[in-house]
Amino acid sequence: MSHESSTLIKTTTSRKIFRFLDGAARLGQFSYMFGPTGRGKSFITRKWIEAKGNAACVRARTGVTQTGLRKQISLALFGDDGAREHEILQYFLEHPGFVLVVDEANHLLMDGNLRSAKCLDSVRDYHDAVQEAGGRMSVVFIFTEYSLDRLRKCRIAAFLQQFINRGDNHLDIPRKISRAYEIIPTVRAYIPDPPEGLINEACRFHDIRSLHKRLEAAVNHCNKTGAPVSAEILAGLQLQFETGSYEDEDADRRFLNS
């Protein structure tokens, strides 16, 4: 029971994201990744960056401006936020095949106006300038609870049309979690020989991120007590999170009333 939540687990989703990013890097693509919250998009992407190198990820902040985004990219590349656009462009040209990931790309559209949308175009400009100079780089935008169709129908769709059409590839992460190819491998990473009841309880979770958190808490608790991880412990931890109640609440009431 030594698994850590920082360890990548091989699932269908992690393989899909790795293949998608490998393809984007190999072909110098301008790409989009869409999926619900809690499906591991950001975590798996960062693990891909750790494994492959020659890539960086910036997390777009709420209300970000073009200047703010440039500073974030500069910090990711140089460890300092003072690089100018031409310096960033030169870095991409000097690192063929570089992959720039912009996570939480929804925040670039938060205001729904041209000012925010221009942040998207500023990143596109880097990609196009590198390609025009004979270089090769990839840009991947990660959107949560978004889709290509939603982008096409948003308030600034007309402005975004060129941005959307510029895309070379996209990946949709489904909302539904696979029992066989996601939940069971995740549970087994924490508990090598889990009972069927524990797997069934794990299937009640709506996102992988929450399942990781509860499994890690369950393993830590059982490592201290010596008890095996069970469906009841996992369910109790989830109940505590959802309601604020806990296992010994009735016993506490009896103690106070005695």
What does this structure look like?
With 258 residues, this protein is α/β, with parallel strands linked by helices. The protein contains twelve helices and five strands. A five-stranded parallel sheet has the order 2-3-4-1-5, with helices on both faces. Strand 3, helix 5 (114-132) and strand 4 form a beta-alpha-beta unit. Helix 1 (12-27) crosses helix 2 and helix 10 crosses helix 11. It is elongated and about 60 Å long. The two termini are 40 Å apart. Mean pLDDT is 87; it is low at 251-256.
Number of helices: 12
Distance between the termini: 40 Å
Query: What would the average pLDDT be, to the nearest integer?
Result: 87
Detail the poorly predicted runs.
251-256
Radius of gyration equals 22 Å
| Class of secondary structure makeup | alpha/beta
How is the largest sheet built, in terms of strand order?
2-3-4-1-5
Shape: elongated
SSE ordering: HEHEHHEHEHHEHHHHH
Query: Which strand-content bin applies to the residues?
Result: 5-15%
Largest sheet: 5 strands, parallel
Proportion of helical residues = 55-70%
Kindly state the number of beta strands.
Answer: 5
